[in-house]
TrEMBL record, chains A, B:
Ranges where the HTH lacI-type domain occurs: 4-58
Signal peptide from the UniProt entry: none
PANTHER family: HTH-TYPE TRANSCRIPTIONAL REGULATOR GALS, LACI-RELATED TRANSCRIPTIONAL REPRESSOR
Protein name: LacI family DNA-binding transcriptional regulator
GO molecular function: DNA binding
Length: 348, 348
DNA sequence: CTGAAAGCGCTTACAG
DNA sequence: CTGAAAGCGCTTACAG
């Protein structure tokens, strides 16, 4: 009864725990013969290292903490998928902590992770967070910290984000290339950075193609299906300069826009172009399927984890200066933006 | 430099680490006055317990391991959401391990979790797994194990599943109540338990309403959009007894069926009823919106975590006999099954 | 190449 | 009510 320890193996072989430990950890000063016999015996006795004991002594836990709003949001589910995949290949485990967008939970999460002596933390901050003391404590302890998506420059840590500006630029340019000329934008609240960036991308894409910005074609929504519908109804009521295409700030807004278009008199395929942003799970399956911008969510997690793994190495040597990784958005072309409705499948 | 330990607090107060430890853990034999001063000092010195050290000594880690195919699948994302929420309120952390449906990864995951001395494991087994030795090892060590969704009776552990039979029964009965009488079923591979249960629910619902089973109306698909489309095309070609409704084994199959229906001559609203299973993210947003069965995924995680928390208590006293929790499926009524197309919104 | 010894930071019987 | 001491299972400078 009771798990096999290195002492059991040592006793079996008439040697010491120190030697067994070194052998199992492939320490260079142990003879090949010794390593061999130790490993064999360990296997025979069904030995499994006690990582807790190892961690306490060595100061390394091989655990990283991930702090996200909710695993129930597909975006974050996909990111932690990427994180865990990379972490695993480097021998690290992942502790998951959800904040549910609450600042207090975030503070508590960081504290628990510090108590657990994690070797690093990857986080996406809550919408509520404006005080960063808990993250500063992480830095003060010398624990590598990576922020993704919801990042801030205030902390001077490495970040992984997607290029919202470029994504919006691509979306708008795609509509132009399809031959649309009066492209409207349903924006989100401008004080939120990602939405502001998407607005900028839209504006600059038009400018780059020498199209004058028409303020009437920019409307500010509340990032919801309902809001997308309402905004679109307004846009379609414009007397002159009615838009012939809409770039919506994200897919749910686009979905509402699509409904409004379908209910309008301009409901023929290709009549009003539409592009969303996010590549939500539903966007491939609605009718018409929605052209959108993919955010490479799993890649985002992988890159964040890779940054963290790099910093694990770097710790020994010298502090690395914070890195800023900006992922390329991907244009996913589907039916909703195609000017000429060619024969296509709904799903793609 | 260096974290505050209980020894630092003890020195500050001219007492011993033992007393500090007891005070912080609210041990009954410590005076209220002592507890008060210890807590104050701990706070002043910014003390945080080292959970690793605590775990090594006490044998309890307050960590549970969760083993799932992938966090990138919305079903599992939702379940781990539920698990983490409950675990947190009980002071437990969650280590996440993904198998990506590979048996070897599952074995390795269980091994890592055992090395980390987790206090319990919640898992959903891979499609590949047919050898359960790694799970038996968990049992042998006396570590509580809970299986959800992909469960097996072979291990004699507690499980949380959804009532697939009942969900299918409800789906079929709903179509009957809408006035459909020739209800077809696109089934999945029958050797997979959940699909077989859904087939049984369909058959029994018809029987309960004295409707004779027509073997021509039961077709076996491959659980994909394409398969749903093909199967539906076949069904609609039946000369006599053409179905007036279809119950699809899951939502992607239903999506393919919906496309086939729309492309057919029976494409008027309410002409052919359709119900899916799973309440996938897209199902509310396609046109028409898809009636389906919700699997209460977050609740599944919560129930699994609650079972595990119960067993943490029980361990001290006596082994609890394994429990089997069967969750109620929820019928989500949307447009695709409505006989009379009343005025409705697309999303609900 | 191997061993003896100390110690990571806690918890907890055993005394008093 | 508090203290002295042992020990959880490892790792790792220090000797030889």
């Amino acid at each position: 009864m009771g798990r096999t320890t290195i002492h059991d193996i040592a006793k079996e072989l008439n040697t010491t725990a120190a030697t067994v430990s070194r052998a199992l950890n492939d320490h260079p000063s142990i003879s090949a013969a010794m390593k061999e016999i130790v490993r064999k015996t360990a296997h025979q006795l069904n030995y499994q290292q006690n990582r807790i004991a190892s961690s306490l002594r060595s100061g390394k836990t091989f655990v990283i903490g991930v702090v996200i709003p909710s695993a129930d949001i597909s975006f974050f589910g996909s990111v932690i998928h990427g994180i865990e995949m990379v972490a695993k290949t480097h021998g690290y485990n992942v502790i998951l902590f959800q904040t549910n967008e609450r600042y207090e939970d975030e503070v508590q999460g960081i504290q628990t992770l510090l108590q657990s002596n994690v070797d690093g933390i990857i986080a996406s901050i809550t919408k509520e967070t404006s005080n960063f003391d808990h993250f500063l404590e992480v830095k003060r302890r010398g624990i590598p910290l990576i922020l993704f998506d919801r990042a801030t420059d205030e902390l001077g840590v490495s970040t992984v984000v997607i290029d919202d500006y470029k994504g919006a630029f691509m979306a708008t340019e795609h509509l132009l290339q399809q031959g649309y000329t009066r492209i409207a934008h349903i924006a989100g609240p401008s004080h939120i950075k990602i939405f502001h960036e998407r607005l900028r991308g839209y504006v600059d894409a038009l400018a780059a193609h020498h199209i004058k910005i028409d303020e009437d074609l920019i409307t500010y929504g509340k990032v919801s299906i309902e809001s997308g519908r309402t905004c679109t109804q307004q846009l379609l009521q414009l007397q002159k300069n009615r838009p012939d295409a809409i770039f919506a700030v994200e897919d749910f807004t686009a979905l509402g826009a699509m409904e409004a278009i379908k209910e309008s008199q301009w409901n023929r395929p290709g009549q009003i172009g539409l592009v969303g942003f996010a590549n939500e799970a539903f966007s491939a399956y609605i009718t018409p399927s929605l052209t959108t911008i993919d955010q490479q969510t799993a890649l985002m997690g992988q890159e964040a984890a890779k940054l963290l793994m790099d910093q694990q190495q770097a710790e020994q040597h010298h502090e690395k200066s914070p890195q800023k990784i900006v992922l390329e958005p991907l244009l996913i072309q589907r039916q909703s933006s195609m000017r000429r409705q060619t024969k296509q499948k709904t799903a793609s």
